[in-house]
Design a protein that fits this description.
- By secondary structure, the chain is an alpha/beta fold.
- The protein is 31% helix and 23% strand.
- The strands form four sheets. Strands 1, 2, 3, 4, 5, 17, 18, 19, 20 and 21 form a ten-stranded mixed beta sheet that branches. A six-stranded parallel beta sheet has the order 10-9-11-14-15-16, with helices on one face.
- Helix 2 packs across helix 3.
- The longest helix has 17 residues.
- Bound molecules: zinc ion.
- The site of zinc ion has 6 residues, from loops.
């Protein structure tokens, strides 16, 4: 890959400072130089590098999605996802992976696959260059209990192929299940600690015994795997802290004790609430029969209020809240994920700066690549976006593909900026 030299860009480096005008040199897959410029002074161009005159565009780290399901297929139900045959399903995942990169998500943390090996196969295919997609951490299926969230079998059709999740009962089955997914090569074990009202098991219910959860965590540790939990209920959030489950998805019903526990261990956890699911299920799913009346009865309007209150409290306590969450339903299609950042600003009380940092600086450690990912700094991996506009002034520009002028992953353009030839350099066409 050739070197790339961005000039005349406003650099948001992920450190929380105001953006500055400068230049960024990418050599190989790394950022090798970041310089401030001003008053028309420009550092010498670099021999042999492709020069991109940003014409004042906003250069920032690639976005990190903390709760991704490539295998959710933009359909209105879990059954519709599960019934997709594996052959079509893997093609779908490949297509979706590309969509994420297109929208500036250069890294995604897998949060469960609908079939046992979908995530692993996609991650491997991205890594070896067979398909195009973001950096990806592969997840297991959702581990659940009989009758729990993810057990979509019918009494007369008990075959596990009909189940959305991997169903276990008791410590030994849990151990076997974790070992099976470790054998397949997942990065993350996903466990459904609480219910999900749309499936019939209330969000406020917690389904696993303490012993089963402990076995999951213990076995995952043995294999060097991370555990992530679907945890909406109060009890399940506390279970995550007690058992050392690093990634907490949803965390809607955090009471004072749960908040205290989380705050005391705030550097050990990431929270990704997935507000888009709640907001759109409450307000934008009528076309699929989920009118506000129906979703109110299911408890989602109450949950949304609680979730917003919980996130506001967590933000105040410095608990890391990250974007991402259950995109891939008909009313939350893949690719619209930057809505989360808008919701953080609108509902959680974050500044646009905090929202950007939640998707960049915190994304590095979320990807377990904290020392090399999430900043525009020398030595960091060159995952970069060039934006037409200022996300700090209007966070919604990140939802618009046209405004994302360029996407670079690992030093290579997935999408190069549209070029207009000028005398000294090429610049994106305004
Ligand atoms: Zn999820």
């Amino acid at each position: 890959m050739g070197d790339v030299f961005f000039t005349n860009v406003r650099i948001f480096d992920g450190g929380g400072e105001a953006p500055f005008t400068g230049e960024v040199l990418v050599q190989g897959n790394r950022i090798s130089r970041v310089t401030r410029t001003g008053y028309g002074i420009r550092t010498p161009t670099v021999m042999g590098a492709q020069v991109i005159d940003g014409a004042g565009a906003f250069l920032m780290p690639g976005l990190v999605e903390a709760h991704t399901h490539f295998s959710w297929n933009d359909q209105p139900s879990l059954d519709a996802i599960q019934r997709m045959p594996p052959e079509e399903h893997i093609l779908w995942c490949a297509e979706v992976a590309k969509r994420y990169l297109d929208m500036g998500w250069t890294s995604c943390v897998g949060a469960a696959a609908a079939k046992p090996r979908l995530d692993v196969v996609i991650r491997n295919a991205i890594n070896d260059g067979t398909i195009v997609g973001p950096r990806y951490l592969a997840a297991s299926q959702e581990i659940t209990v009989p009758g729990g969230l993810g057990d979509t079998t019918a009494p007369h059709l008990p075959q596990h192929e009909f189940a959305f999740g991997a169903i276990v009962s008791g410590a030994e089955e849990m151990r076997r299940c974790v070992r099976m997914f470790a054998k397949y090569g997942v990065d993350t074990l996903k466990i459904n600690l609480s219910g999900e009202s749309i499936t019939g098991m209330p969000s406020e219910m917690s389904q696993f015994t303490e012993e089963e959860v402990a076995v999951c965590v213990d076995e995952a540790k043995r294999w060097g795997k991370r555990v992530a939990a679907h945890a909406r209920s109060t009890w399940s959030i506390k279970q995550c802290v007690k058992q050392g489950i690093e990634v907490i998805y949803h965390a809607s019903f955090a009471d004072e004790e749960a908040l205290d526990m989380l705050e005391a261990k705030k550097l050990d956890h990431f929270v990704a609430p997935g507000l888009a699911w709640l907001i759109n299920t409450c307000h934008n799913a009528s076309a699929w029969g989920l009118t506000p009346e129906v979703t109110r009865k299911m408890g989602y309007h109450h949950e949304l209020e609680c979730a917003i209150e919980s996130m506001r409290a967590m933000r105040k306590r410095g608990i890391r809240i990250l974007p991402g969450g259950d995109y891939g339903f008909a009313w939350t299609p893949h690719g619209t994920n930057a809505k989360d950042l808008e919701y953080f600003v609108k509902h959680v009380g974050m500044s646009t700066m905090e929202a950007l940092l939640s998707a960049t600086a915190w994304g590095g450690p979320m990807m377990r690549m904290g020392k090399v990912l999430g900043y525009v700094r020398e030595g960091y991996l060159a995952d970069l976006l060039l934006i037409d506009g200022d996300p700090l002034a209007d966070i919604t520009v990140l939802q618009d593909r046209e405004r994302i002028l360029a996407v670079m992953k690992d030093g290579e353009f997935h999408r190069a900026p549209p070029l207009r030839h000028a005398r000294t350099a090429t610049r994106w066409a305004a």
